[in-house]
Specification:
The chain has 106 residues and is an all-alpha fold. It has a domain of 71 residues. The chain has 3 helices and no strands. Helix 2 packs antiparallel against helix 3. The longest helix is centred in the middle third of the chain and has 42 residues. The radius of gyration is 29 Å and the shape is rod-shaped.
Length: 106
């Protein structure tokens, strides 16, 4: 069995190939976005839970040593280090912030 291809079918196919090859590829993700997506995933699944764990552990440690820090006068510095810094790292830092770019200026 032999199929006949009409001239209009060939012309239409050739025209569509030329038309679609002239479009720029706008659906391709930018490589910087792909890097950012990996950073966001690592932040959400690794660094944020670690920050919560550090905050809970730091708060418990602060409660244990607060009498000693109160006597020596370093309660504020100790609270900043053990409680405030992990809190800000976990809840105040924008999601996807690369840890190398993180500056504790909150």
């Amino acid at each position: 069995m032999k199929m006949k291809t009409s001239t209009s079918t060939v012309a239409l196919t050739l025209g569509l190939v030329v038309l679609f090859s002239s479009f720029s590829n706008t659906c391709k993700a930018d490589s910087s976005y792909e890097k950012k997506a990996g950073t966001i995933a690592a932040d959400v699944f690794v660094f944020r839970p670690s920050g919560v764990l550090l905050m809970v552990t730091g708060t418990a440690l602060f409660v244990l040593i607060v009498p000693a820090t109160w006597i020596s006068g370093g309660t504020r510095d100790c609270a900043n280090t053990l409680v405030k810094t992990p809190y800000q790292f976990t809840f105040r830092r924008p999601i996807g912030t690369d840890l190398r770019d993180y500056i504790d200026d909150y």
